[in-house]
Write the structure tokens for this entry.
Amino acid sequence: MIRLEKVKTDPVETLKRHAEAIGEAVRQAIKPDRITVEYPRERRKYPECFRGFIVFDKEKCISCFRCAQICPANAIQMEYFENAYPGIDYAKCIFCHFCVDSCPTGALNTSKVHDVAFKAMEEMRLSTKQIAKLPEIVREEIQTVEYYVDRNTWKLVRKKELDSLEVPPKPVKVKERKASCIEPESCIGCRLCANVCPQNAIKVERLKATEEGGTGYILKVQTEQCTGCGLCVRQCPMQILRLEEVGE
Amino acid sequence: MEEYAIDIPVEPPKELRSLFIPIPPDYVEDVYKSDDFLVLVGPQHPGSGHMRLIVRVKGDIIQEVIPDPGYVHRSMEKLAENRLYIQNIPLVERPAIMDAPNFNLGYIRAIEEALDIEVPERAKYIRTMLAELGRVGTHLYDAAILAVFMGHTTGFMYPFGLRELICEALVRVTGARFTSSFIIPGGVRRDVDDSTFKWIYDMTLAMERRLKSFERIFVKNPTVIARLKDVGVLTKEEAIKYGVVGPFLRASGVEYDVRKVEPYEVYDELAWDMPVSDAGDGYSRLLVRVNEVGQSLSVVRQCIKQMPEGRVISDQIAEKGEDIRGSFYDSLYDLVLPSGEYTTLTEGARGTIIYSIISDGESNVPYRVRIVTPGWLYLRGFMESMKGERLADLQAIYGSFGYFPPEADR
Amino acid sequence: MDEFIDFVRGGPLGPIKKWGTRWSLWPVHLVTACCGAELAHAFACGYDGERIGALNYGIARQTNLIIVEGAITRKMARVLRVTWEQMPDPKFVIVMGACGLEGGLFWNGYHLVKPSDVVPVDFFIPGCPPTPEALLRGIRQLQDKIVTGEAKTSATFSEIMLEQGRKPRVLPKSPKKVSKAPAVLVNVPKQVEWEFGEKLVEELKAKIDAKSITITGKNRIAVKVERDYIPKAALKLRDMGFDHVKNVNVVDVPNEDKFIVEYHFSSYSVKELMPVVVNVFADVPRDEPEVKSLAKIFPSADYLEREMHDFFGVVFEGNPWTGRKFLLAPDAPEYPLRKDFKLEKEVYVR
Amino acid sequence: MIDVFQILNYFFGIFSSDMMDIPLIAPIVDYLMQIPLLNILVALILWKPFFAVVIMPGLVVLTLYLLYIVWYERKLTARVQWRVGPLEVARPIRGAIQALADGIRYFFQEAIVHREAHRPYYIQLPILAFIPVLLPILFIPAGSAVGIYTPYSIQLIVTFIALIPITIVAIGWASNSRFAYIGSVREAFMYFAYEVPFIIAVISMVFLYGSGDAYVAVEKQSAIPGALLNPIAFIVYIIAMLMATSRLPFEIPEADQEIAFGPFVEYSGILFGLVMVLAYEKLYIMTLLFTILFLGGWSGIYCPLLGDLNGPLWLFIKSIVVISILVIVRSIYARYRLDQALRIGWTSMLTLSIIALIIGGAVGVWLS
């Protein structure tokens, strides 16, 4: 524990402090430690993990709704094209990138675009069509700036080359998964899973109620059509569906 | 000294009625009859944040200050009851975005305590490092605001220049300048590579050197000392009585720091000291925090030096793989806390942050989340400390408390 | 507003007016929420907005730009409008931060207002908080707007071709599971190794006439008392060395028709008691929510009680502020934290 | 017609009898003097009293100085503060016309007169405030050029400077707002705090030179500048100057974070532009006096090419250098509290000024 002394204010000490303060200011005035990034003319180089505008890759998307459901601001809402794809409302987006981390296939990726001013709020509600490509922003900069630290001082490194705002997609380590039913006999035949499945991969068939204990329905997942989105798993009121990993 | 009263009938100004003033009209009348003067400071005032202070002055001496908070009340506690546990992570850091890691950490610790999650060592060290970076950043922010409240623009610019480094460090680790949302139940979102750690290590050293400039021009500036010394004094007894927290409590001589009292993460494994001052005035509040910045930078360095290898996310959360990327939703959306109340104390930069999560044991949304922020806790002490000071001291005391309305209002 | 742009550009002195206004956009000091931190960064030495002629200045009368920094609450909306009215024409507004646009994280909160409903806005900047670069980009775009006379979004989003599909009959359900009849217990016992705690519980049992005393975790004790007994329990605790209230909490349990009122006591003066948080709570009927205030005994509880009164309508008898709103705006909904006050639900499909 | 011609001729005679003799532009002047009607204009401009008051160190230079000092202050502050300062408005000249842009913006902004204000005074006072600011220029001699010569010029300048705060207090009163009221009270308090030591410091220099005549003062400094003759008065004058012009650390009446620019809180548009430059103008006038009293006034290396322009130019250069050094205090200090500033004014500065008075008397005897 450090117990701080009460500050002394005798005239000698005060004069010394005056001198120190003036000395510091004069030193800076003569040789300034300037650290300004002159933004429109220069751009900070942000690391690859920077959380900026989101770029969407339609090919990888399995319409699993995870991004829409994890979004704390409800900024992502799915739109139905040939499949359900996310659209982002940047008027709500808080750039937490929970969606990017939630995406099991890496269809959502970050970018270093962050400095955009919109003229109207309607324009900020971007549909899937608009987020599929990196937005082209107004760039006035002639160089990039990076903070460089050495032990004695720290300064800005300026480089003439311009930074690419695109971030290469990182592979996701999640393995491919398929839905399967762990207790087909418990199915109550509500057909919620079959109706919610974007691939129509689930069939619920009615059995003749002959077997004892059975509910009279059987649930079949056609694995070759299943993309592993897990919507059925989350929809099932009986929780008898699971996502299981397939392959290596 | 004899007081002279001039018997001129004074009418309370009419505009006080049309403006929304939360004090009763007879109070206003009483003020005007007793020859006092009401000064409304804020919410749009160059020397106040987003709150209104209704100051009753007699001459130049403040008689009473009535706070009018809530200008940034964003209904956080209600919203937290309507979202998944995991979705609340960005929400709970919004009260004070410069102190996001600490606010985040308190909430996550409450969840982890409920679910008995064992956090890997490496994650603990990264969390501690982030929390301390947040603390440094917040103290610098508050020092800057204090400086600008006293008209010292250089004292404003230097800490914000240094904060750029903190932001850069946070960007390199988490990807965002302020609101990192990096700490999740069971660990952290991503592993951090060695080059980033080295950058941060060097940064702390470079920062200490620049902090000396700041000390010479602001902290030890005679005008600053003159403005803050013996101003807004809270004695030890008063500080305890009004429930002041954090560095402001320590400035009044109470040796209380949650990191020492109830150590969490890896604070008990690191060597650091708790600065305490007995004066309880504005200057000691500044000085305690300046000293804490030094301590925190040393903690950051120790964290990086002792950083163990291993996973950054507990296997109770992510069974396979070290990275939460891709399985974030599946691992975390369905957290259901066992029934009960889970209260954690966390030492944020401005003081004790209390999270009290009440779960009903069946839902994956909390039944009630109570967030008590340091700003809200020391507001009373802050108001009391202004009594009897001069009107010009209001800003100095305001700054010395680093009062941040979004934090207090939530 | 476009008429200001027209004024700046019009007339024989147009070019001079345009030039002067363009390079002298001074934002007023109107901090509305936490985006102010990034605004400060944009005008501090890291980015230095003064470079492009924008100097952050004191009050509305001498400036011509409002930067709305994030959330505008019901209380602040009035201030924003007043500030805007105070400002001499021509004046411009930039809104930064998600909270100021559609509400961001707080989109379904009960205390938020959209700034675009309050004042005419020239530019919107997304982010939470936006980076300083984004804010400077907003000012830059405003400069361009003054020069060219038309607003331009600083990015173009090129579209890909996609065919519109049909919504299925069943939409995926929300991941939220909310218990229909929740059993809310705040004193669930927990097994912990805490010798001092057991001693403390014994001491408490001897002193306080409690219904139950439970250890709910390391350093946490829950004491259930009758509601009228709270002040007496508080006095007893004060004698034991618990010298401040850390938290006042109310939990609304509509299905049991009660409120749970909690006081969290802790100590600053006794070293052993410092980490201990004693939760003294009592059940209060929902139709007659009255508790005796502790504000006299523990001044630290004062503001916390006022806040709980705002949120739940629990009356703390003896609190000087009871009956008036403290934290909430005068036009805020009544008792918003009660469970029967519902918020808008999330929508996952457009 | 003849009458007009005669009158013009009469004035031409007055003007041309006492013209600035500047060898550098002599050929041009000679050429222009041959053109009728234009010659009277040239003669007027170069007429020494007119030149001193309107051109240099008077109004024209004052305007240029205002543009320069606002920019320079911001730029120097920025430099100390690790940043750049105004730049993009004119990048090749480092943003030097930033103050012009701000001025133009103010000029074309709406000037609001709020309901509570005392309307006539509210509008008139910013303009009236220029009278006490500009009157001293009449009496400030610059070399051979002087508006009105009087052997009591120093006393007169001090008198007019003392009038300025009255207008500021009146501005605060006319604004009729809480913060304006507090600001006016503060201004009034500060006025007494600095004015007494300031006047005593000036009187000590008058004692020292044995005359209130600026010419005598400058002449007596030909060997040793006044700053060395009476360093105590020098220090008191500098501090009083900071106080009088509301510079940090004594920016108490305006204190934007405390009372939101005090008396000027309600002003907007061009009216604010006028009141904002008041303090800078006051600084300029006080620095001119400072230069005459302590830094040898207009004496400097004589450049034969410039002739009579030498005096005004040296005076101006010295003042600008002094101001440029002084504005750095803005980036060093925080604001004192009112009572602290009053204490400084009434105790240490008053004591110092009385010591300065004694030194002034003693040195004055020695000099004579």
In short: The longest strand of chain A covers residues 143-149. The domain at 177-245 of chain A is CATH 3.30.70.20 (Alpha-Beta Plaits). Residues 11-30 of chain A form the longest helix (20 residues). The two ends of chain A are 56 Å apart (CA to CA).
